[in-house]
Amino acid sequence: MKKKGRQGSAIVEFALLSPFLFGTLIGLWVYGPQLISNLQIVQTARDVASMYSRGVDFSTSTNQAMITRLGEQLGLQSTGGNGVVILSTVQFIGPLQCAQFSSDSCGNSGKWAFTNRIVFGNTSLRSSNLGNTTCTLNTDGSLNLVDTVTNGCAAVPNTALLGGLGTPNDSVNGFKPGQDAYVVEVAANTGWTSAVPWTSSVGYAFAIF
Questions:
Q1: Cβ neighbours of residue 45 under 8 Å, at least 6 residues apart?
Q2: pLDDT classification of 198: cutoffs 50, 70, 90
Q3: Mean pLDDT rounded to a whole number for the chain
Q4: Highest mean pLDDT among 17-26, 42-51, 63-72
Q5: DSSP string spanning 17-57?
Q6: How far is Cα of residue 5 from the mean position of the Cα atoms in its chain?
Q7: What are phi and psi of 12, to 5 degrees?
Q8: How far apart are CA 30 and CA 27, in angstroms?
Q9: With the CA atoms of 163, 169, 175 and 179 taken in that order, what torsion angle do they form, in degrees rounded to the nearest 10?
Q10: Is residue 95 a contact partner of residue 77, using CB atoms and an 8 Å limit?
């Protein structure tokens, strides 16, 4: 009788705990891949920013292919796919940058401005948190110097991502006007919200070098 009583208690305990155990397993099955994908997005953004700040030209298909291999599990492709990579080089325009132009034509004085913009992958998936430039880009994604310094089309619409750099000033230590900041944003689908794979919310990460 004592042995049967213990077995009965074990069955009751399992019955009470099983909803929590199954809930945990289902949660791991559903959200585990999304968590892994988000970590991969963060790491990809850091790796690409490191290379971008060291002069790797990601306007070329060869160098873009390096990133698609790096983010293969995220579904990154040079065109289309399940992710997008947005690379921006920006500068804070100060007096020295304006000095080569007449004072009344330095439209971006005291502002952050784009000097380069490259986007590849599924460009409809997500837009940049910095906003976009409407200036004409060269084949390597660069902007002409005159546009960067004088033209409002080069001004960064949303500078919230750059807040950590402060307001660059030639008279104090820290980030200086005219110094390039390299911003890489990576977004990718991270799981599913229905029975159809890759139709989920979009994970996003950025890195600044």
A1: 184, 185, 186, 205, 206, 207
A2: very low
A3: 85
A4: 42-51
A5: HHHHHHHHHHHHHHHHHHHHHHHHHHHHHHHHHHHHHTT--
A6: 59
A7: -65, -45
A8: 5
A9: 110
A10: no
